[in-house]
Amino acid sequence: MSVTVHTPVKFYRMFIVVAFIAFSVTALIWRAFDLHILDHAFLQGQGDARYLRVLPVATHRGMITDRNGEPLALSTPVNSVWIHPKEFLTVQAQWPKLAKVLKIKVSRITELVMRRKTRDFVYLQRHVTPEVSQKILALGLAGVSLQREYKRYYPAGEVASHVIGFTNIDDAGQEGLELAYDDWLKGTPGSKRVLKDRLGRVIKHVELIEQAKPGKDLVLSIDRRLQYLTYRELKKAVYKHKAKSGSAVILDVKTGEVLAMVNQPSYNPNNRRNLKSKNFRNRAVTDIFEPGSTIKPFTIAAALESGKYRPTSQIDTTPGLFRVGASIIRDHRNYGVLDLTRIIQKSSNVGASKIALSLPAERITGIHHKVGFGISSQSGFPGEVTGLVNVVSNKQMIERATLSYGYGISVTTLQLARAYAVIANKGKRLPVTFTRVDSNVNAQAVLSASTSQQIITMMESVVTKEGTGKLAGIPGYRVAGKTGTVKKITLGGYSDKKYLSIFAGVVPASNPRMVMVVTVDEPAGGIYYGGEVAAPVFSKVMAGALRILDIAPDAIHSDIRYAAATSEIAKVKMAGSP
């Protein structure tokens, strides 16, 4: 019988194996403890740094609408393509596919990545279409992601571009009311924490850090229907007369609201490629000009306010010219003796000059300041200029004379419209506003109501067969207005070939509701008088505006009498014919 004896060597080997296993288990337990307890925060942070991201939450800009709620500017959601350069470099072989989708050159992608490869966020292309977004997602390239943003869209296009303006790629206002009300319209972006996979795709929304706040909506005074009508007719006139440019403004007499404001040439804010920046400016508030004969109603108003003149006062304009110092002031022909009404009707420079020279200089310049020339309209529109009213003394005879018929004073189209609104509003001046007015506005009385009414009556004579503005007439309505044909200043003095055609009018004259001023710069083709170029634009626009706003006719009886008389004449002719 044999007996097995455990030698010390075998026992030693077993001890080593058991000790090794025990040590290994202990090490694993310690490592697990270290990873999950001691180093958890550090390791979690390292993991988060690789896959947990804080992303901005885009918010939309406030909508801009016309007075009736029709959208003029709104924000639509779009995607922008961005890359994480370090991750994107790992799929360089796939860059040609991405370049094809984005319709850019591979060299452009290479240049962008290499120049900014140390960054964590680089835009590759902003505001891509939904179709492109889907193709990008289908590629599934590492380091390529989409970010939600908003793009500004302008439904009215170039019809309202000079008023609304536009935003840049980052949705910040750059021109027009988009710039003026940028703080009101822009929203406050939020932020959120998300978990991404190795391809940069969001796989989990962890938490919302800050709530996004959308911008506030803005309701304008503009009536989109009137805006379109004005735009169409002004554009027709500028093209017809091959003019350099044009502007038109419609104001609400009772509130000072801008109902329409257009310029030519215009631009499309939805497609600004290859556009010239000079077309961006709103000429109606930035470009100044000498108003010419459209200033004469204010010269007559100064005369009436002085108490020295009445509407029936007679001025002898014979022989159609008037010498002041070394200068000669001329009328188109010899009008003889004119009362104040016919001075406006015939647009007599001689008559206006003689009246101005019979009054103190400050009487004329004072009336200009009162109606708003040389001061801000308070509209708040970016880039608006105040114009200039020259200070003249009683000794400056020729300056006083020329000021009476619109030379030596600079105004904007908006200022001229506001001045005529003072006359139309019974002598009360209102601040101009581009936002809808829903309450009473504080007005400042600067002229007497009687003087204003007398000027309206005088200006009605301009829009008759005997007046210079007969083409501004509107069937069924009484129209008051004034024409202006201004010689433009060139390097050699006043030009005999370059003119500015103007018409300023009020409708309906019996109870004024709207004022419109039309200016057409440098019409060509031999036709340049304000009554022939600008007055027809006024007539067409206001005829449509009166119907749109459902303003009742105030001269229908005279039209009926005229139609009846015409019918009787026709009957007599027919009866007497063989």
What does this 3D model show about the protein?
The protein has 578 residues and is of the alpha+beta class. It has 2 domains: 54-219, Penicillin-binding protein 2a (Domain 2), CATH 3.90.1310; 224-269 and 281-562, 3-Layer(aba) Sandwich (Beta-lactamase). Helix content is 38%, strand content 22%. Strands 2, 3, 4, 5 and 8 form a 5-stranded mixed beta sheet that branches. It has a 5-stranded antiparallel beta sheet with strand order 10-9-21-20-19, with helices on both faces. 41% of the residues are buried.
- CATH homologous superfamily of the largest domain? DD-peptidase/beta-lactamase superfamily
- Poorly predicted runs of 5 or more residues: 559-578
Structural class category: alpha+beta
CATH topology of the largest domain: Beta-lactamase
What separation lies between the terminal Cα atoms?
167 Å
Specify the CATH class of the largest domain.
Alpha Beta
- Tell me the strand percentage band: 15-25%
